[in-house]
Automatic annotation (TrEMBL):
This is SET domain-containing protein. It comes from the Eukaryota. It comes from Hibiscus sabdariffa (roselle). SMART domains: LRR_TYP, TPR. PANTHER family: TETRATRICOPEPTIDE REPEAT (TPR)-LIKE SUPERFAMILY PROTEIN. TPR repeats lie at residues 66-99. It holds the Pfam family LRRNT_2. Its main location: nucleus.
Amino acid sequence: MEKLKCLVPESLKRRVAESSIDHLPSLSSSLLQYFLSLPQFHQLISELAAQPSTQAGLCAKNKGAALELKLKGNQFYSTGDHSQALRCYSQALRLAPIDAHDTGKNLVATLYLNRASLFHKMGLPMESLRDCSRALEISPSYPKVWYRRGKVNATLGNYEDAVHDLTVAKNMETSIGGKKQIESELEILAQHHENKSAKPVHHSRKRVGIPDVPQQIKLQCVETADKGRGMISQFDIPEGSLIHTEEPYAVVILKQYRETHCHYCLNELPVDTIPCVSCSLPLYCSQHCQMQAGGQIHVNYSSKINIHKKKSNCSEECPDINGGNNCDPKLDHIPEHKHECQGVHWPAILPSDVVLAGRVLVKSMEQKGQFTDVPNLSEILGLCESYSKMLPESKLELHIYSIVLLFCLQCSYSPEMSINGNSTSQIVILLSQIRVNSMAIVRMKSNDFPEQQNWFQKFSSGEADVASSLEQVRVGQALYRAASLFNHSCKPNIHAYYISRSLLLRTTEFVAEGCALELSYGPQVGQWDCKDRLRFLEEEYFFRCWCRGCSKVNASDLVISGFCCVNPNCSGVVLDSLVVNCEKKKPNIPETISNESQVYESDDIDIKKVAHISLDQTHSSLHIDPGYCLKCGSYCNFSSRSEDVKKAWIDLRRLQDSIASKDMCSTRLPDALRSLGLLRSILHAYNKGVAEAEDIVAKAFCFIGDFQPARDHCKSSIEILEMLYGPNHIAIGNELVKLSSIQLAMGDSAAVDNINRAIQSPNITTDQSALLVLKSRVTSDPRNLLATNWSVTTSVCSWIGVTCGSNNIRVTALNLTGMGLAGTIPPDLGNLSFLSSLTIVNNSFQGSLPNQLANLRRLNHVNLGNNKISGDIPSWFGSFTRLRSLYLFGNNFTGLIPSSLCYLPKLEILSLEKNNLQGHIPVRIGNLSTLKILSLDSNMLSGQIPGTIGDLLNLEVLSSRENSLTGPVPSSMGNLTFLSFLDVSYNSLSGTIPFQIGNLQNLEGLLLGRNNFTGFIPPSIFNMSTMRVIWLGFNQLSGQLPPITGRGLPKLEGLYLELNELSGPIPSSISNASKLIFLQLPNNSFSGIVPDTFGNLKDLQSFDIPHNNLSSEPELRFLSSLTNCKDLEVVIFDGNPLISGELPVSVGNLSASVTLFYASHCSIKGRIPREIGNLSQLVWLGLDYNGFTGTIPETLGNLRELQNVNLGSNKLQGSIPSELCHLQRLAYLTLTDNELSGPIPACLGDIVSLRNLFLGLNKFTSIPSTLTRLNGLLFLELSSNSLTGPLPVDIGNWKSVTNLNLSENRFSGVIPSSIAGLMHLTHLSLSDYKGKFRMEDHSGTTRAHHSSAMKTCAVHHNFKSHLAELMIPLGAKLLGEEDSMTQTKTLATIGYMSPEYG
C-alpha cells in the first residue's frame, strides 16, 4: 500500500487533501482511473485475490502439508510430547481439505480422531468427546471413532452412551480379534457399572445467553445542540439496570488475536479448536460458531455438512428503541465469512477495519438482493462520518483501501460488481464511518501473562505473583447501529460490556427521566488526565469533549498527574503548565463560597483538600499558575523534581522487567523501594503514578513470596485509585479481587471483607470473589477445570458451571457436577445472595455445611449428593421457603432428620438416601403436601412408618429400603393414589401386606422384599394395570397365587416371589402378562404340572422356577413352549425331582440368546440331544443329578461361549469327545460319577482357561502329560478311576492348584519331586498310591518314603505331619492355617488402538 501511495501524483494528493464528501465521486473516479493504468496495482490485486488453483492462495487448504503435520503429530504422540502433538494435529486440521482421504479414511475425520485420542490421554475427556462427535459427523461409519467415543463416555461415567458407542463399534468392526476385544471392553464396563453404580456425567460447553431486558425501559433518540443525536431515557432508570442489548451488524477479529480467540464469538479458543471447512484462516471455539460464521463448502460435501445453519428471526429495530435485542430479521441468514472463504488471503492481509467494511458491504448487498451496484450505505446504516476532518494522509489511505477492497470482492464474491467513482466513494464513506462508529469488543486479560495462562493457576503453583494486573484488551471490532447513537462522556452513566459478540449496556448510576445516556469511547476520568483525554478524542473521533468530566473542574483531573506541595503540612497540588492551560479552558467555574477562595466539590474527592481555586475579577476564568500550590500558593522547582521522577521510574521499570523475566537480582527490590519513597515525596499523594509504583512493588513482594508487604502496598494502591475513580468503579472491583487473593494466600481473615465489598460493588463482575474463595478451598481439581477456567481474565458468567441471571447480572446457578473436586465448602458461598440453584453432586467435598449458607434464601434447588459431607443435616434448610428439591444423598450425614424440613411449603423432592441418619421418620412428614419424591434408602432409620405418610397426597415415589424399620405398613398408604413407585425392601417390617395397596392404581413398582411379611398376598395386587415390577421375595408369605394372576397386569415386566412359602399350582394365566420379562419363583412349595403356556410371553428373558415340587408331562412340553420366547436368556428349573421324561430335541430351538440352562436334580432320562449344540451363546450348562444315558454329544463343542459344564451324577458312557477341547473359554468341567472310560484326552491341556476339572468316579485309564499345561488350575479331581502309570513329571506346573485328589487309582512309580512346588496346595489325596517318593536333600542323599506314609493328606495337621519332612529340605513354604487362595476372574483388556494414527 505504501508503494501505491508513493505513486500517486502530487496533483491528486492535493485534491484528496482538500476534498470533502461532495467531491468524493469525481475524486474517486480519478483515482480509480489512475490506478487502473498502473501495472503495480494489477499485480497487487492478483496477489491479494489469488485463487487456490494458482497455488498462490496462502489461506487455501493443502492436503500434502496436512499429511506431513499428521505424521509429525503421530511421532510426537509416540514420544509423549503431547503439546507438540496437539499443535501438529490442530494445524493439520486447519489445512486438511474436507474431501481428502488417507489410507481409505477421510483425512479430517482421522485427524479429529487422533486429536481425540490425544485429549483422552491428556485427561481432557470433554474435548475428546467433542472431537469424536465431529469425526462421526464427517465419517459416521468409522468404527475406531465409535470405539474411542465409547471409551471417553465410560471415562465420563456416561454408561448408556458408552455401551451404545461400543456396541456400534463392535457391529462395524470387521476383524474377529477387534470384535472380541470390544466385547471384553463391554463386559468390563458392565461389571464396573454394576459394582460402582456410576451415574452419568454429562458436560456440555456452556454458552452464556443474553439477559432479558425489562420492556418498561424505553429509550429515545433526540437531537441535542452540543452533541447532535443522542439517547435519553423516557423514564427514571435505577442503578445497575440493563437498558440495551444488541447484536452487531458486522464484526471482525483483530489480527493479533486470530490464533487465540474464536473468529465468530471472539471468546478465548479452547484446545479443541475447529477450523473453517474450506479455508485455513479462521479458527472457531465450537461447531455452533463455525456454522454461524459460514464459509464456502466443498461441492461434494455440501449435502452432508450443514455449515450455513440459520438461527431464528429477531425483531426489527424501531425508532423508539426498547431496551431489548436490536437486530435485523435478515441478518442472521447471511454468513459473514463466506465471501472470504476461497483460499484467498486478502482478508488476512488487509487491515481489520477494511475487512470489516467488506463484511458490511456484502451483508447490505445480500439484504438488497443486488450484486452489481454498491448500495447507499449511509442510508442503510444511518451512521455519522468524519471524512472531512481527517488528515490528508488518512484520506488517501481510505481511497486506496476502498479501491483495493472492491476489486478483491469482485474476484471472490461478485464478478458482476461494478467498480466506479460512485461505488468507490461509498466505501470511502463507509471506512470513515467505521473509524468513528465501530466499537472495540474487549476481553479481560492479565498484563503479566500475555500467553493467556490463568493467573490463579500460576499463583497456586507458585509460578506467579499474586498481584497480577488486569486490563481490557481489544480482540474485535464491530458496528452496532443502535449503540452508535449513544454519545460519549468521560464520566459515563452507562457501562458497555460483551457476552460473546453481543453488546450489553447497563447503568452505573441512577438516571432521571429525560437525562442523556452516555458511555465512554475511551479513557475516563481517573484513568487519564483531562488534557490526554481531550487529545485522544480529537485525534481518534474528531470532536472536542464537553462532558461533565471535561467541562467542570474536578479533583481527579488535578491530582492524577500532580506534584505535592513543598510545604510538608500542606495537602495541596502543584500542576505543570500543560495541565494548567487545560483546566483554565473548562467553562464551568466553581460557585463562590463564604471565604476568600472559590471551590468546586467533586463527586469523589473534596477539592478543598487539594486546592483553593481563585477566580479572576470577572468570574470568567480560573486564576492558577503552573508551579504554584493550589492550596497555599507555595512555589516548587519543576525541572529538578521532574528529573528526580524520571530517575525513580528507571528503577521501577527495571523491577517490572525482572518480574516479567522471572529473574530478580538482590538489589532490584531495595532500589525500587527507595525510588517509591522518592516518588511519594515528590508526587501528590493521589497521583496515579504512585498507585502504579505501589502495584509494581506489591507484585515484586508476591514474586518472592513475602505476602504481608505485598498486601500493604496493594492496599496503598487501591486507596489512591479509589480517590481517582470513586469507590464503586469497576476498576476498584478488580483491584479488590487482587487484594483478597493476596490475603487468602497469607490466611488473612480480612479477605472476606474485601470479597464482600467486591460483591456489593454494583459495577464489578458479580459474585466473582465469593467463587474465588470456593476455588481456594478446593484441594484437588484432577481435571484442572477450575484452575484453567475460573480466571479473573474472563467474565464470571462465562466460567464453567456458573450461570448468571437476566436483569441483574448475579450468579443464579452453580453447577459443579462430576468434576472430581475435593475440598471444603467455605462460608463465603453464603454471599451468593441471588443463587437459586446449587449443584455440586458427584464430587468429594467434605466437612460440615457452614451456617452462612442459611443466607441463600432464594434457593429452589439444592443437590449436594455423592460427596463426603458430614455432621447433622442443618435445621436452617427449613427456612428456604422457595426450595423445591433437596438432594443430600450419598454423604456422611448423621443424627436425626430435622423436623424443620417438614415445613417447606414448596418441597417436591427430598432425597436423603445413603447417609448414616438415625431415629424415626418424622411424624410431621405429612405436612409436605407438595412432596412428590421421598427417598430415605440406606440409612439406619428405625421405628415404624408413620401413618401421616398417607397425607402426602401428591407423592409419586416412596423409597426407604435398607433401613431398620419395623412394624406394619400403615393402611393409610392406600391414600397415595399418585404413587408410582413404592420400595420398603431390606427392612424388618412385619404383619400382612395391607389390602389398601390395591387402591394405588398408578403404581408401577412394588418392592417389599427382604422383610418379615406373613399371610396371603392381597389379590388386588394382581389387578393393577400400571404395574411393571413386583418383588415380594424373601418373606414368609403363604397361600396360593390367584387363578387370574396375569390377566390384570398388562404392563408387568418382572414378577419376583422367591424364598417364600407359597404353594399350589403356578397359574397358567401368568402367560396373559404379555410384557413379562422376568419370572422368578424359586424356593417355594409350588406343585403341579409346569404350564405349557409360557411360550405366549414373547418378551420373556428369564424363566426361573427351581426348588419347588413341580412336575411335568413326559415330553417336557413347557420347554417346547419356551422356544417361542426369542429373547430368552435364562432357563432354570433344577431342584424339582418330579420333573421327569426325556429332554426334547426342541431344546435346540430355544432362543439363540440363552446363556444359562440349569436342569439339575430332576428326574430326566434318556440321551442328551445333539440339538443342544445349537445354543450358541450358552455360558452355563447344568444337567447333573439326573438319569442321562448314552454318550456326551460332540455338538457341545459348538458352544464356544461355554464357561461351565456340569454333567455329573448321571449314567453317561463312552469317552470324552475331543470336540470339548474347542471350548477355549471353559473354566469348570464336571463329569464326576458317570461311566465314562478311555484315556483322558490330551487336548484338554489346551484349554488354558480351565480352573476346575472334576473327572472322578469314572473309568478313565490314563492321565496325559499335557494336562500339566493348565497352570491356572485350582481344583483337580481324578479319584476313583483306573488311571495307571507314573504321575506326570511336570506336576509342579500346577502352581495355583489348591485341591488335588488322585486317590483310588493305580498310579505307580516315583512321585515327581516337583510336587514340592505346589505352594498353594491345601488338600492332597494320594491314597492307594503304589510307589515311592524320592527326593534329594541338601546333602545329596536320596531319601525314600513308601506309600504307606502317603495315605490321604488332608489340609492342615495331616498334611503338615506327613509332608513337612519332605518339603522343608527343599526350602518350600509350608502353608499356615491363615493362608488362602483367592480366585480372581480376569478379562483381557487389549489396547484396541492407541495412538490412533488412522
